[in-house]
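# step 3/5: fold
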Amino acid sequence: MAKTFMQMVQEAKAEVPGVSPVEAQRRFQEDPDALLLEVRDSGNIPADEKAPNALNISLGTLPIRADLEVPEDRRDPRLQDRSRQVITTCGLGNLAAMGARLLKEMGFTNVVYMDGGMQAWKDAGLPTD
């Protein structure tokens, strides 16, 4: 049976926990190795929605960049440790949930998504680049 985008988002949110932007920031402060992963296409990220130190890998290329079996030049070395804490984000949290689910399916053991995405981050008054 065919699924809609929002059905896929709801399935992802049911499988991977979400955290608030304030909780995400707390995790970054406690774990300097934690990774904030922005999964929107770089051209779709407004200048005022860029979190400090976020890594941008679009959802479309994430499975390749995180794969341990593709040629090394196609991987992202920051995604090689499956136990590294990763928090995915996007504009509103929907793509982030799908990205977190994908990483979980690829064996990441410490992955969550930021509920509300960068809009919630901005609304919480947290810093942007």
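# step 4/5: annotate
The two ends are 42 Å apart (CA to CA).
# step 5/5: archive (pending)
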